[in-house]
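4.2 Preliminary Data

To establish feasibility before requesting continued support, the project team ran the inverse folding procedure on a target of 147 residues. The structure was first converted into the token representation described in Section 3, and no sequence information of any kind was made available to the design step. The complete token record follows.
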């Protein structure tokens, strides 16, 4: 149910495939805060909040900690708040070259870590698929071998 550009937590949960409990937990630990509250006190979220939750959802299977998630989100928040947009070109704060380089280096470390973790997961998946294939062969042999 959308309320003036805002979504209730149930819609956000459906869109992100995260449980209500998980979304509330991320709120409690400060990773995602609802953009507003309804008159009844219910959490209300925007598209930007959904995008933030999707970043978290994508980091979770790669084994990033809550602290690492928070660090990456703070990097992207800082970069986003200083990047001019068509609707707010002049109001954005400008990063110094040193700060931009520092944020870019931190972001690059996260990219490298994500790539390394994806490679490790591919290796695990390949091993798991080999195992499943071996089990299937064994099952077929048992089914076709006379006793």
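Position-by-position output of the design step:
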């Amino acid at each position: 149910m959308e309320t003036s550009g805002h979504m209730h937590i149930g819609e956000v949960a459906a869109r992100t495939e995260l449980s209500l409990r998980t979304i509330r937990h991320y709120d409690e630990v400060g990773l995602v805060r609802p953009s507003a509250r309804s008159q009844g006190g219910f959490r209300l979220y925007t598209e930007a909040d959904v995008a933030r939750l999707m970043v978290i959802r994508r980091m979770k299977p790669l084994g990033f900690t809550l602290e690492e998630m928070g660090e990456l989100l703070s990097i992207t928040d800082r970069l986003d708040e200083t990047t001019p947009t068509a609707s707010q070109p002049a109001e954005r704060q400008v990063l110094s070259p040193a700060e931009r380089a520092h944020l870019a280096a931190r972001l690059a470390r996260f990219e490298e870590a994500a790539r390394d973790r994806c490679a490790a997961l591919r290796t695990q998946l390949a091993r798991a698929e080999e195992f499943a294939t071996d089990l299937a062969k064994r099952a077929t042999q048992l089914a076709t071998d006379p006793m």
